[in-house]
Design brief:
Layout: H1 2-16, E1 22-25, E2 27-29, E3 32-39, E4 42-49, E5 56-59, E6 70-77, E7 82-95, E8 98-108, E9 117-119, H2 121-124, E10 127-132, E11 137-142, E12 154-157, E13 159-161, E14 164-173, E15 176-185, E16 192-194, H3 196-201, H4 204-207, E17 209-217, E18 223-236, E19 239-248, E20 263-266, H5 267-270, E21 273-278, E22 283-288
Parallel strand pairs: 4-9, 5-8, 15-20, 16-19
Antiparallel strand pairs: 1-11, 2-3, 3-4, 3-7, 5-9, 6-7, 7-8, 10-11, 10-21, 12-22, 13-14, 14-15, 14-18, 16-20, 17-18, 18-19, 21-22
Length: 296
């Protein structure tokens, strides 16, 4: 009896020692996810939560309220081109009880004061990240946390294409199915953009019904116009969604001109799925949520 009591006590201690996840509330504004964090001890800095950005950014218009040391430049690759931007190194980012030190921040002059910066995957890695659109919370778990609830989720392989998270998916039109790797971009407020080489190779502009056009501005500052077409069916995480508006890129530069991916899902599409991102094990999990029937 004493031996059994010892085992029960040991198990209780082991479970209680598991660190609880860091929970960060977010707002969903115009299909995009926003959180608040501290930058170099300055509180309430508003970030766009962006799985499509491999580095984090400060909006140039917000530098007046954040203590930053500008120490270099780098090449920023936007959706339609590249440009040279200033950088700041050795920064401290704090969100909840998590601290990220020696963070490099890129300075980009966004044409808006709606947010102060972009929270990229460089700040997400090192944790398993759950985005719950029902509760509007992001949970940051320790790697290989055994308490994560995967019930109802569909597991998929996570591909990192030039540091860009992507999954295998496909869409159908005119009785034909097109497959490839598709990037996951919570920072984009559209549903799906088809990369220029993939759209051109498969002559999608002539196969899909045009329903409008979109004007977009990339982080590189370029402004460009794209046709919007209607996609009859998309297969994603073992689910089918129908009649999705899709933009067809004609970019010759930038990420939209990549030949390594077929396209990019934006958050107008992704917000319909709760997701758990496990960068370390290259796995990602999706589960439909209450946004499924919201309008595109």
């Amino acid at each position: 009896m004493k031996f059994m009591y010892f085992i029960a006590t040991f198990l209780t201690i082991s479970v209680s020692a598991q660190k609880k996840p860091t929970v960060i509330p977010f707002s969903l504004e115009d299909h995009s996810v926003y959180i608040y964090a501290k930058v170099n001890k300055t509180d309430s800095i508003k970030f766009l939560f962006d799985t499509g950005a491999d580095g984090s950014v400060i909006n140039s218009s917000s530098t007046k309220k954040i203590d930053l040391k500008i120490e270099g430049t780098s090449q920023n690759q936007g959706s339609n081109g590249t440009n040279t931007v200033n950088t700041s190194i050795d920064n401290l980012i704090q969100f909840g009880d998590i601290e990220k030190r020696n963070v490099m921040l890129t300075l980009i002059p966004y044409e808006t004061d709606h947010f102060d910066g972009v929270f990229g995957t460089d700040l997400m890695k090192g944790n398993v990240v759950e985005i719950d659109y029902n509760t509007k919370e992001i949970h940051f778990y320790e790697t290989n946390d055994k308490t994560i609830n995967y019930s109802g989720y569909e597991k998929m392989k996570l591909y990192m294409v030039d540091n860009y998270p992507a999954v295998e998916s496909n869409f159908s039109t005119n009785g034909k199915t097109y497959s490839g790797l598709f990037g996951l971009d919570t920072g984009a407020d559209d549903a799906l953009t088809i990369a220029a080489p993939f759209a051109k190779k498969n002559t999608l502009a002539t196969l899909m019904k045009k329903i409008g056009k979109a004007t977009a501005q990339g982080s590189d500052g370029s402004v460009y116009e794209m046709p919007i077409v209607l996609c009859p069916s998309i297969s994603f995480a073992q689910k089918y969604l129908y009649n999705i508006p899709v933009t067809l890129s004609a970019s010759t530069e930038g990420i939209d001109a990549t030949e390594k991916m077929a396209g990019f899902f934006g958050n107008k599409f992704l917000k319909r799925f709760n997701m758990i991102i496990d960068f370390n094990n290259q796995l990602i999990y999706f589960k439909l949520n209450r946004n499924l029937y919201s309008e595109f």
